[in-house]
Amino acid sequence: MSVATARKLEAGAARGLLRRVPEAVSIRLASLVVLAVAWQAASILFTERFVPGPASTFAALWDLARGGELIKHFGVTMARMLASFAAAMLVGMVIGTAMGLYRRAEQSLDMWVMVGLTIPGLCYIIVSFMWLGLNDRAAVLAITWATFPAIAINVWQGVKAIDPRLIDMARVFGASAWRRTTRVVVPQVLPYLMAAARFGLGIIWKVTVLVELLGRSDGIGYMLNYSFQMFDMADVFAWTIFFTLVMLAIELAILKPIERRLFMWRPEIRA
Fold first, then answer.
1. How many CB atoms lie within 10 A of CB 244?
2. What was the pLDDT predicted at 83?
3. Which among 242, 255, 270, 271 is least surrounded, fewest beta carbons within 10 Å?
4. In this predicted model, what pLDDT tens digit does every residue of 142-199 receive, in sequence order?
5. Residue 235, C-beta contacts closer than 8 angstroms, at least 6 positions apart
6. In the chain, which residues have pLDDT < 70?
7. How many CB atoms lie within 10 A of CB 93?
8. Distances from the Cα of 116 to the Cαs of 90, 140, 210, in angstroms?
């Protein structure tokens, strides 16, 4: 592909994106309004004691932020999550790549990866805490242990899906090994890596909260457990909403832009 053609494709993708932005924003705003109305209606129907309304929830969230608890416990949770995410991605990519490239590795590991995927995360947490004690090393081990099988499966399928005919075609046209890798192999694997990252991130959030609830004295999971013991439903909703907002921010501000940049070459699907 020539440089001029690539620039034309990028310009066309940018124009298409600009046309879709207003419509996408309108749809998302409408869905938020519907959610807020349904939430308020549920609060009236079941009373504030069981379903705090938006006003009560965001007031509790503001109190947590003003008291410093929000930033403190969120920072602890993010540190655990990021360390576990990096470890799980590394282990999952190594195992998944080996299984995709080598038949013996696939035959040796596929059953154990599936077993690792089906074991409940609670089992990993209990074993890790019993091995290493109630500390952050055990927390990171448990989270990584519960997450990497899902990442390995996505990477495994991505490596197996590489089309060797495209590699042969690039070789015929005289492309170097580096160019074949960066322009032919990597673009075929990237969608699976992004899916693995998204899937792994979702699992890590859930397992991190469970780890903190069971065996740590700080973090969002610990605060959720504390709110539960105090039967403070407004704080439970506040932490849940905050968790949701953080996940949306990661998706919209980090993952989506990366995905658009990496996959600008793909044709646009029109409904």
1. 10
2. 93
3. 271
4. 999 999 999 999 888 888 888 778 777 877 878 777 777 777 777 778 888 888 888 8
5. 60, 64, 223, 227
6. 1-24, 265-271
7. 21
8. 16, 16, 18
Token pair for residue 7?
A: 């620039």
* pLDDT, position 13: 52
**Size of the chain in residues:** 271
Fold classification of 68-262 (topology level): MetI-like fold (1.10.3720)
